[in-house]
Amino acid sequence: MEKQNHKDTLPKLLLLNYEKYGNSKTALREKDRGIWQKYTWTKYFEIVRNLALALEGEGLKKGEKVAIIGENKPHVYWFELATQANRAAVVGIFSDCSASETKFFLEHSDCRFVVCQDQEQVDKVLEVKDQLPLLNKVIFWEEKGMWSYDHPDLLHMDTLLSRGSELNHSKPGHFEELIKKTRGEDQAVYFYSSGTTGQPKAAMQTHWNIINMAQQMDSRYPVLDSDESVSFLPIAWIAEQLFNVVHSLCKGFAVNFPEKQETVQENIREIGPQVLLLSPRLWEDTISDLRVKIADAMWLNRLFFDVAFKIGQKVADYKMEGRSISPVLRFGNVLADLMIFRPLRDRIGLGRIRLARTAGTAVSPDVIRYFHAIGVPLVQLYGSSECGVVTMHPQNQIKPESCGTALEGYEIKIAESGEIFVRSPFLFKGYYKEPEKSKNVIKDGYYLTGDFGRVDDDGHLIVMDRMDDLNHIGGDKVFSPQFAEIRLRFSPYIKDAIVVGEVSTEYAAVIINIDERNVGNWAEKKKLDYTTFADLSQRSEIIMLISQEIEEVNEYLPEYAQVKKFINLHKEFDPDEEEMTRTRKVRRAFMEKKYGQLIDAMFRNQKSTEMIASVAYRDGSITQLKSTLLVNDIG
Amino acid sequence: MKKKIELKEIELSFGGLKIISGISMDIQESELLAVIGPNGAGKSSLLNCISGFYRPQKGKIIFEGKDITKTSCLDRAKIGISRTFQHMELYNGLTVLDNLMSSRHNMMNYGIFSSFLYFGKARRQELDQREVIEDVIDLLEIEAIRHAVVGSLPYGLRKRVDLGRALASQPELLMLDEPMAGMNSEEKEDMARFILDIQELWKTSMVIIEHDMGVVMDISDRIVMIDFGEKIIEGTPDEVKNSPEVIQAYLGV
Known about the structure:
The structure holds 2 protein chains of 2 kinds.
Chain A: H1 10-21, E1 26-32, E2 35-40, H2 41-57, E3 65-69, H3 74-85, E4 89-93, H4 99-108, E5 113-116, H5 119-128, E6 137-140, E7 154-156, H6 157-170, H7 174-181, E8 187-192, E9 202-206, H8 207-220, E10 228-230, H9 238-251, E11 254-257, H10 264-271, E12 275-278, H11 280-296, H12 299-321, H13 327-347, E13 355-358, H14 365-373, E14 378-384, E15 388-392, E16 405-406, E17 411-414, E18 419-423, H15 435-441, E19 442-443, E20 446-455, E21 461-466, E22 471-473, E23 477-479, H16 481-489, E24 494-501, E25 508-514, H17 516-525, H18 533-538, H19 540-554, E26 563-568, H20 588-594, H21 596-603, E27 608-616, E28 622-630, E29 632-633
Chain B: E1 3-14, E2 17-28, E3 32-36, H1 43-51, E4 58-63, E5 66-67, H2 73-78, E6 81-84, H3 96-102, H4 112-117, H5 120-140, H6 155-168, E7 173-177, H7 185-202, E8 205-209, H8 213-219, E9 222-227, E10 230-235, H9 237-241, H10 244-251
C-alpha cells in the first residue's frame, strides 16, 4: 500500500475536511442542556487548533503521551487530535477505572499530561498524583463541583482555549505547520489490552495503521458523508476509535454524543443513525427488552408479532442460506415489515440503520438471526487492539455463527493447535515497554491471537473461544465454555454465565448471573415476593425458570458437554471486583479461582454451599456477605 | 457578612396553642443554616412564617433590609424566597420539565393568543425560561427523566425534582424542609452533594430542616436548635454537638 502524504495522519485528515466542508457541514453533535448542539468542521478545526497550540505552549513534545479519561464527548476527540498534531500519542483510560487502575495506566505510559472529564476523574488522579512524579498537568473540561479546587497543576480547558487563540493570533499559520510535520509512522494511540489475563499491555498503533484499518472496513461497507453515527462505547477501546474517531475523519460523516449514559437509548432514537457499533451485550439487552415488552403486550399484539416474526425469521434464514424465497413469503415479509418491523425499528432507534455492527466478544448466532428477522442488517466482526479489524461479514453473505471473511490486506492462518494467526501490513508496533511480550506474540510476521477457531469452505472465520479457556471434559473431549455461554446469555433471564467442565466428569456446570430486571419483572407478574438480588436468585420458582432456559441451550450442546448442574450467583459479576474487564468480558481464570468453592460443590454433588464473600463498593470499602447458594440439577 | 434575613421576636399561636414563642435569629448571605429539634418543636412552622404561609402574631421579618412581615406569599416568592415541602407538593400528572417550568410561571407574561400559536413573545419567553431550567437539570443530574411523568418516579427522584422546582425560581433564600427524609444513604449523599453545589455555585442562602444529625453536622455552617417553640442553642456544628441541651432534647437524659 502506498503512503499518501497529505492524508496519512488524523490531524491532516481534519485539515482536509475543514477545507472541504468548512461551516457547511456538521462534524460532531452533542446533546447538552436538552438540545443537540452542533460543531461544524470549521469549529472542530478551530478548537483543535487552539488546544494544540496551547498544549505546545505547555511543553508537550513529540513522542510524549497524553492520557484522556472521560465518557464519550466531543472534547475527547478535540484533545486527541490536538495531542496528535503535536506528534504525541493518546492513551485512552476507561472512565470507570478505579484510582489504582488509573495510576497503573498513567505510570506505565509515562504521561506528563492527563485530560479528565469532570470532578470524579480529577479526584481519582489527584488521589494518586503524589505517586506519579512525571505527571505535571491535570486538565479538565467539566466545571461542575470544581469551583473551589485550587490545586496548582489543575488547568481548565477554557484557559487552554483562550491561550491557544492568543498564540494563533501571534503566530498565524503555525498550527498548519505543525500538522504538516506529522507523519504516518508517528504513534497515534496506545490501546491498553483489556487484560483478561494478567496485567494490561499497551499496544502501540501508528496513524498509518489505524487509517488503513478504517479504510479497509470502509471498502467493504462504504459509509457516506451524509450518514450519522452515535458514539458511546468506551473511547479507550480500539473499535470505537476505528469506527468513529478515525472513520469519521476519513469519510466526513457526523458523530453524535449522547447526553448521559442513561439517555443513550432515547438519544439514539432522536438521531436515527445509519451506522452504529454496539457491543454484543448491548445488542443482547435490546433483544431482552423487546422480548419482555412483547410478553407484556396484549394477546392480539403478541399474536401479530409472533406471526410477523416467524415470517421475518424464515426470510432471513433463507437469505443467509442463499435459498430462493417464494413470492408468497416475500409478500408476507413486505407486509410484516410495513406493519410490525418498521415501527419496531423506529422504536429502538434503528429506523434508518444501514450498517449495524457488533464487535468485542462473541455473540450468539441467535442474536444475529433475530436482528436480521426484524430487518436490522447486523454484521459481526473480529479484531483486536493488536491487529485492528481482521474479518467482517461480506454484504449479502451473512453466516450467523461466523465472523465473516478477512478484509483486504489481511491473511489468516490456522495453526495446527487451532490457534488463529493473523498477518497484515497494519500490525501493531509492539507493546509499550514490553519487547519480550511483543516478541512472544509475533511469529514469522504473524500475530498470534490466542483465539481458537477455524476457517470454513467459504473463507469465513469461525472463532470458538480463547485458546487458554478451552479445556477437556469427560476424558479427552475438547470443550469450549464460550460456545455455551453466548447461547445462555441469549436468554432474557440470564445476564451472564460462566461454564466450567472437568476432565473426570461427563457434564458441564454453570454459574449464572440472573438478569435482575427481567427476572424481577417475571417474579412480579407471578406475584412472587422477594427482597434482594440474593433472595431472588435462590427462589425455587426462579431456579425452575433458569433450569428451563438451560435445558433449551443443552439441545445445542454435545451430550458430553451438556450442563447438568448450576448455581445462581447471589450477586452480579462486577468489573470493580476484577471479575470482568472494563469492556465487560468475563475474566475466567480469576473467576474460576474465586468461585472454586462453588465449582467444587457442583462437581462433588453437594446440595448447597455457604458462600462468604467480600463485596467491594464504588468508594473502595469492603464488607463481608454470607449467603447460602443452592446447587441445582437439570433434568 | 451581610444578613440575608432577620427574624425578630417571632410569636405564633393557633388559638391557645403557642407554636413559636419569641424566636429571633438571622441567616447570613450564602450561609447554610440548619434548624434542628424534636418533632413538634415548631421547625416547619418557622419556615412557614418565613415563606408567608403563616402570619406570626408578633415580631418582624426583615429580608435584605426590608420589612416583609406583611408581604404576601406570592410577593415573597417574587423577591426570591423559595422552599420545598416535607411532603412533596408536585404536580404528579405533569412531566419533570413542566413541573420545573411551573416555578418560572410568574416570570412570563405573554397572552393567550401568542401562547396558542407559540410565536413572538411566548416563544421567546419560554425559551429564556427553559435555559434557566436546563441549568437546574444539569446541576441535579436529572437529564434522563426530563420527560418522565413525576407520578411515575421513585421517591428519591421526586424529592430531587421538588428541590429542582424550588431552585428553578433562582431563589435568594432557599428553605428545605427535610430534604432527605426517607432516603437511603446513597440518595442522602447525592442530596448533600447537590445542596453543597448549590451553595458553592449560586451562593444561595439556605435553611435546612433535617433529622439526620450526621448530614447536618457535615454540611451546615451554623445550627439553630429549637424545642417547644423556643430557641435552645445556636452555634457552629462543633459547638452544638457537645452541648448538654441538644443531648437532652434528643436523648431525653
